[in-house]
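#onboarding

Welcome to the new folks! Below is a worked example of what a typical request in this channel looks like: someone posts a single protein sequence, and someone else replies with the predicted structure as tokens. Don't worry about understanding the tokens yet, we'll cover that in week two.

Example request:
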Amino acid sequence: MKSMNRWGATLGIAGSAIIGSSLIGATQALALPQDQIVKKLGSIPVFTITDSKGAPLVASVPKAPNQGSNSNQQTSVAGVFINQKDAQAFVEQLKTKNPELAKTVRVVPVSLGEVYKLDQANQNKPNALDVAYVPSQNQVKAAMDLLRQGGQKNVNQFNGTPLFVARAGKEKGYLTVKQANQEIIPFFFNKEELQSMLERFKKQQPNLASTLEIQVVNLEGVLQTLKTRNDQELNQIMLVPPQESIQFVRSLQPASNRSQNAPQAPRR
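Example response:
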């Protein structure tokens, strides 16, 4: 699993590479079971581009050096878009670059949990299909702006797919919200949606307003952390899909199924 760089360059979409997986300090070195990770990711819609038979559109790109390959070896990579409109924009670009191919493809929503499960099943298999993410470029820009505001210099790209999380208080602990009688730590794909939650929080907890800050991490690092570490704080993590994605998926469902199947953003 990686972010879109070589795949994007091959097919005309810009992307970025992943960075390290560190998220939360030293934790117990126990892997969270895969079925728990898949369940945690199950309500996150992402978007793939498939042909008329439902097979994903793939690009052949050179294997990375750390895959033990020479420069002539290729690997097949399928793109997974975080934003439906970005996926549709890619199809529109394809109509100009390869109109015959564009006639056969469409944008299809799929669960991030299923993408993760497929990617894990393909690990270390020869000639297996790889998965790479295309983050929203608006959110990538927001992530880079945050890094610059935090004092990092010469920020020319964000490595990975950005997730935004809030910290508050003297100890800068992760901000939690209650959902289904549980305290969760929401990680947002859209900075604006987190900011909206924080505006409500400031009104409810004005004494903490000045301590609020937004931290940006990458999805790839979070997934790796969930896979390799296990503690109570990690179990509290909940990824919050963009409301736009939820609404799009909901629009595809029969009216009778919309309310029970559509994931909801955490509320405070």
